[in-house]
Design brief:
Radius of gyration: 32 Å
Number of domains: 2
CATH topology of the largest domain: Serine Threonine Protein Phosphatase 5, Tetratricopeptide repeat
Helix content: 55-70%
Shape: globular
Structural class: mainly alpha
Distance between the termini: 102 Å
Oligomer: single chain
Amino acid sequence: MIWLWILLVALLVIGGIFWFGKLPAAARPLAGAAIMLGLAGYALQGSPSLPGKPVAAPEEPEGFGDAITDQRQGMAERFGPAAQWLGMSDGFARTGKTELAAKTLEKGLDKYPDNVDLWVGLGNALAAHSGGAMSPAAALAFDEAARRDPSHPAPPFFAGLALAQGGDLKGAETVWSQLLARSPTDAPWRPDLEMRLAQLRQALGPPAPPAGAADGS
């Protein structure tokens, strides 16, 4: 039955080409031959009688297409004036456009100059623009965030992260230790902070003995 419909469609196409397509008489045999060649190829390789089977889409890489996650360890507001600017900035940063990510947050700060989350986001964007390490501009942004809310955990957390990525492990250990000391036991960021701090201390190795302890004095 399916072949009958295929032949009928082919005849309609040929009729349309010949009578309505206004092809020159010399070109009509070539057009007809092309259609017949297509039918012959389908007859050899096609299987119109088989039931349809949807093709499964290839599995997306992990995290591909997900909504922008809260990369601030539960420290930033999910809604409010900062959220849209942070979301746009994160989107640019994910595609490697770190300068545009920073400029986006600068525009947000023009409108909300005292928003701690925007200052922290700017520090992150500037650190990313410097290859993931702390830069003077990033340090200034983190300092501005901490100045506006000294109790906010995000400025020291991400300042410590930038210090660690830049190779200043001791500086990061100092900043994170101070943050851990003042973090509530049920703070959502505390488990991640404890894990990072433990890894950092392991990388630093055992503390050096006090001066004079080695010679027994």
